[in-house]
What does this fold into?
Amino acid sequence: MAVTRTATRFEIGPLKQADWPAVARIFEAGIAGGDATFEPAAPGSWQEWSDARLREPKLAARARGEVIGWAALSATSTRPVYRGVAEVGIYVAPEHMGKGVGRALLGALVDASERAGIWTLQAGIFPENRASIALHERCGFELVGVRRKIGQMPDGRWRDDRGTQRAAKDRLAAARHAWIVNGAARRSPCHPRRRVRCAGVARHDP
It folds into this structure.
């Protein structure tokens, strides 16, 4: 997939534990911006961050070997009926915003999620975060409702969030795959979470 709006060359591939310093730095930049998350700070370690998310997909955008953005999914519920529903988390380094990185990451995340058996993606976005709203809309997410004063910021402010979601192209196939993968995972005493391989590297050039 070509990126024509920027001279930045980047590629999308799996996120690794060694990328944690960059992941934390980009996460902290998003927190500092004030409109990305309710979280007061990035987790203290890769393990803490990773344990709160699905095993895969976890993706990174890299330019000249440097992580300039990341995307990952979190489970929305422990109930089996929602095994194919996941929450999107996507962050791009401030100096690389507006260059197509976010769209490439989210597009790759959508594709990888469907291969992993996810049939619905959802994202809660602050109404003030116009860039994120536009990004998700371009990638097929639709507004399903607004949750009023759903969470409290570290400074005490209560804020709304816009609930958006995107259904898999073939929801039935995703559901079947989720049953297979989750069934295998439950039978494994060492890996209770899903074990799904992510796609190979996708390059993005101007």
Summary: The chain has five helices and eight strands. Strands lie at 10-14, 58-63, 66-75, 85-92, 120-125, 142-152, 158-167, 202-204. Residues 10-186 form a domain with the Aminopeptidase fold (CATH 3.40.630.30). The two ends are 9 Å apart (CA to CA).
